[in-house]
Amino acid sequence: MTWHRATRDDLPVAGLWALAAGGAVAILPFAPHLAQLLPPCPLHELTGIPCLTCGATRVALLLARGEAFEALALNPMAALGLGAGVLCGLLAPAWVGMRGPLLRLTPAPHWRLALAVALAANWAYLILRGV
Amino acid sequence: MEERPPMSPEPGPPMYGFAPPPPTPPPALPVIPWEQPGLHVFSAFFQTAGMLLSSPRQSFERVANTTRVARPLVFGLIVGLVGVAAETFWNLLLRDLLPEFFPWADDRYRVSQAFAVMGAATAPVWLPMFLVLVAALQHLFLFLVGGAKRGFVATFRVVAYSWVTMPLAIIPMCGQLAGGIWNIVLLVIGLSAVHQISTGRAAAAVLLPLILCCACVGMALALFGAAIFGALGAGG
């Protein structure tokens, strides 16, 4: 894990992130209707076991209504990922413009293990909670 | 007295040392047409699409190694919009046949016509977001298997160009399924070429989210395929 000052090379990714976050904000009024386009999770339907992303649509709808704690309780990783993704995405171009510090993670074994443990823990939470 | 190296029988420059002359580096491959400045946009688009479908490894090896994202983003949006439009068209046209192909699917799997049209109409807004989300998830799993040798932009480029299979949804019924499977193949080849990792590691990075994250997607594809083959069997 290393920190470095943002450079001009980081601007395209920041712009891309902001575009995606802006798109998420723009479709907020349509979110409840667009969510109906997504079919139910067949794994959950057939086996009763939630998949790793089960509840993510409901998390997005809760976040759209500003109910952050309820979203966090439903699927913590999806709530953190979506919430932080939109907020940080909107700020990213300004952050890079101010040459703020950026984190660079190298795929070292301990970071990969930490990520795998976090994903497994989140999935276990979903199964135990019966999402 | 110092010995001179033996004279070469072949004509050429005189050799005064034992080190062979440095090999000439192979000429760098030109980047794919879509990323070449100055080409006509339609010609570049169709050339790139054809290259990606016919010789994917060579195409991905020629993807530019820069931090710019505009061109792959536009490419992904064009093919994505064609795919969404085709999918919506066939869904609206064939929605009455749904119960025959998927007897297990109840009303929750049927989307109203108005919602389907609204989803397609708002695609230019949500498609870039979806593309970035898919690329981010893909990069996360690439990191998990230790294959993220290059940055997020490299993964984003592969995901955007692999969407070249989305217009296959123009083919009714099986186009989406074929496009989805072909997309997985392109992703594996592209990630392997761009991140310079083994095909096995790239396949693990692509299949892991499908198995874990989107087991639902995999199962839906399997059920879809089973329904088509079942219908074909019943018809024949």
Explain this structure to me?
The complex is a heterodimer of chains A (131) and B (236). Chain A has helices spanning 11-26, 31-35, 42-47, 56-64, 68-74, 76-97, 109-129; strands spanning 2-5, 101-104. Chain A is mainly alpha-helical. Chain A has a two-stranded antiparallel ribbon. In chain A, helix 1 packs across helix 6. Chain A starts with a strand and ends with a helix. With 236 residues, chain B is mostly helical. Chain B has helices spanning 41-54, 56-61, 70-94, 98-101, 113-121, 123-144, 152-162, 175-194, 199-211, 215-235. Chain B is globular and about 80 Å long. Mean pLDDT of chain B is 81; it is low at 1-10.
Describe the structure concisely for a colleague.
The complex is a heterodimer of chains A (131) and B (236). With 131 residues, chain A is mainly alpha-helical.
List keywords for this structure.
heterodimer; A: 131 residues; mainly alpha; two-stranded antiparallel sheet; 7 helices; globular; B: 236 residues; 0% strand; disordered N terminus
Number of helices of chain B: 10
Approximately what portion of the residues of chain A adopt beta-strand conformation?
5-15%
What is the helical fraction of chain B, as a range of percent?
55-70%
Unreliable runs of chain A: none
Give the largest interface pair and sizes.
A-B, 39 and 42 residues
Question: What shape does the CA trace of chain A take?
Answer: globular
Q: Which residue ranges of chain B are poorly predicted, with pLDDT under 50 across at least 5 consecutive positions?
A: 1-10
Strand count of chain B? 0
